[in-house]
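Progress report, Aim 2. The chain analyzed during this reporting quarter is listed below.
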Amino acid sequence: MDERPHSYFIAGTAFAAPPLAAGLYVVATPIGNLKDITLRALETLAAADLVLCEDTRHSATLLDHYGIRTPRKSLHEHNERARVGEVIAAIGAGRAVAQISDAGTPLLSDPGFPLVRAVREVGLPVFALPGPSALLAALASAGLPTDTFGFIGFLPAKAGARANALAALRARGDTLVFYESPRRLGDTLAAMADAFGDRPAAVALELTKRFERVERGTLADLARQFGERETKGEAVILVGGAEGVVVEQADWQAALADALVAQPLRAAVDEITARYGLKRKDVYDAALALKAQE
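Predicted structure tokens for the chain:
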């Protein structure tokens, strides 16, 4: 029998955490400032039967800060698939399992997708607890267009593969968002300048922390700036979309027809919308028309 207190503490005051229904709870956690945790996240982490952490030692800083004593197990890219069976069995037995990453929202360049998919496939519930995200924090503060954007995540580490990946993104008109490690930041910005030309861009560093900053400029300027000095912590790179690029309707509709052969309609529409920087409604309507012709 679980006799631990289902509670959390804020500034020394204890708060009871209400019981949870069985399921997998995907919980966003702070990317820097511990005060960015939501009350719902604290209640969930305190009431859960188990917290799956990308790194239990790293997550201890957050959980201990709020006096949360829920049992913890690791769930990372090397053991995630091996953990799936036991997590599904636990939820099936009526337990609530919370999943967190080292920082931010799980699944966004972090572990979690295989587990969420497996839990969904067996018909068990998955609950998302929104909250901190480096992607959204950077978009909100960079001063680049946010009406349409594409999250690319980490580029390949090898120069050739990275150049190919950037070349495939050259025609996109939406703001592109990347994650990058500090030791590759200068090289990646230089590769982006080569691939995209002199576009406006921003680099967000230490988001929500004491020395948070967002550096703006052209890709060439930022490549010089970050090529000359080392930085700390993972960076978010934002690149303005291509301007004046005309996408021929016949080209994207042909690509859409190919995508519909291999994917469900919604997935094909999402892919073509992102690839060509189009309005989703236009692509969706075209997809319905293509389906009607079958």
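Residues 249-262 form the longest helix (14 residues). The longest strand covers residues 149-154. These observations will guide the mutagenesis work planned for the next reporting period.
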